[in-house]
Amino acid sequence: MYSSVQLTIKYIKYLLTSSNAKGHGVHSPFVFDFITNVLIDKRQFYSFSSIEKVRETLFQNDTVLTLEDFGAGSLIAKTNNRKISMIARSSLKPKKFSQLMFRIVNYYKTNTILELGTSLGITSSYLASANLQGHLYTFEGAKQVAELARQHFKNFELNNITIIEGNFDDTLPPQLKMLKQVDLAFVDGNHRKEPTLFYFNQMLEKATEDSIFIFDDIHWSQGMEEAWAAIQQHPAVTLTIDLFFIGLVFFRKEQKVPQHFSIRF
After folding, report:
1. Model pLDDT, residue 69
2. pLDDT for the residue 255
3. Which residue from 12, 133, 166, 227 lies 20 to 30 Å from 221 (Cα-Cα)?
4. H-helix or E-strand spanning residue 41
5. Phi/psi zone of residue 207: left (φ > 0), alpha (ψ -120 to 50 degrees), beta?
6. Are strands 212-216 and 246-250 parallel, antiparallel or unpaired?
7. 108-118: per-residue pLDDT in tens?
8. Cα–Cα distance, 135 to 120 (Å, whole number)
């Protein structure tokens, strides 16, 4: 993991070198449409306020949960006792990114959605509520965290979510075999190079030219930056968008020459 100083320097470089979020100078009709109708859409959709109210309660919840950690943190401890408020502050995506993913699902009408890393279920709720006709399969390694997320889904009356508990290495392959395709995937559960590329290659077998893969924390460490670079260079990938904290991957065959954009958000 990069230090806070290293991340700050990288973020400043990103701000200085990325395209502006209004689409000026972006020579791609698809990306311009994405910026105009998805990225900078400021509308408040029907589920936003109720989900954000739950987020605020999580920040104040000092109940202690036991976490089985199969990700980068497993190098430090196999089991961790943490307050819900601490989990919320360290693992929940900021609302602007969660709401962006809602808009992506809503705009592109993605039906079969995978999320690697349920956490407390906030981003999951955004993904599922964006298309109630679709289905979200969300994977979580920590049993008590999954149970709390399950309660949130029940309260939101989201019946289009399946939580799959356990180590992603064990649970992802059999679930993928049961799916015809993956329309959208959000990878937010293991911030290391090898697992990230492993999940990418597994999900790639179920991707179509309209699929969208989203990777979290692509600049979090040298390993994650190497994983992101490898994904960008994969022959199946025709377009990527770097928003610094997340990276979007597209497989559109009409894109004859691969393009990689860095856009301020």
Report:
1. 62
2. 83
3. 166
4. none
5. beta
6. antiparallel
7. 999 999 999 99
8. 18
